[in-house]
Amino acid sequence: MSEPTSSTSPTSAGVPAARAPARLLQFLPWAITLLCFGYLYTRLSGAAAREGLDLIPYLTSIFSRVSWTSWLALMIPYSMFFFLIDSLIVWRVVSWFNTPLRYTDILPIRGSSYILSILNEQVGKGAMGLYLNRRHGVPGWEVGSSMVFIMFCEFFYLLSWATVGWMLSRDELPEVFGLIPWIALGAAVFFAAWILFFRGPLGKGRELRERPLFKSFREAGLHRYLTIILLRSPALIAAVFVYTNALRLFGVEAGYAQMLGYLPIIFFGAATPGPMRTVAITLWVILFPGNEGELTTFGFVQHNFFIFFNAAIGLLFLRRANRELFDGSAE
Question: Any idea where the domains of the chain sit in the sequence?
């Protein structure tokens, strides 16, 4: 007699076990988002109770005290300035690594990509990749390489300014910000190894270095990384001025050096896919304790105005971008 055959194979038995971590990872962003909203609700309810108000009247009173005309006078020029700087970065990188373009050629597709960025910043970058592939015949992997290069530089740009902010106002920042110089040191070591791998002897002959996705890094010397950081820096300097004065309109005082330490961290969180945008809004409440209502309102309106106003800029270019992308005709 033969032994009975088991109806459950090792492969099928392992499927539920493999799916469980995947399901947990899918649920994690929602859990973090709910945790952040729960934290904000608790803090806001407590602040409203201290003033003898319900939550809605408490938030309404904060909105009514803000000079929205002055706030718009800060935010609209800043958002437009950011768009011009952001487009400059894309133009510079694409012209280096993919195909020569005029700066004005980048404006429509970069502006239109902001509409998709409402959902996810990386989806917006994917739209730019599609445009360059269809309009200029740039291979998809090479476009992807340029977008990864921009994100790579974005990290070091924010970390560099966060380090400057920590050096200027270390005594005013929360203790956890003391990790910034150590993170910067570790990042500097990693960056040196990165350069040696893609431009030096460390990665010579390695298959990984020759992959299309890393084309930009093979061609980028140190000066190109520094150029991107310098070109993007005026946007952060402008943000420090704008956010500090906007925060004062909400009745919260902050110094420029203090804001220089906070903003890179908050911007990094806001640019990260997933629930980090909610975390970034929550950070305002943590960094300025005692002003829960003002900071929740501030973080919410700052972040959402910036996203939706940029999308409105994109709408101005959408018709031209669609024509160039799908009809293949330049304006």
Answer: 32-46+53-327
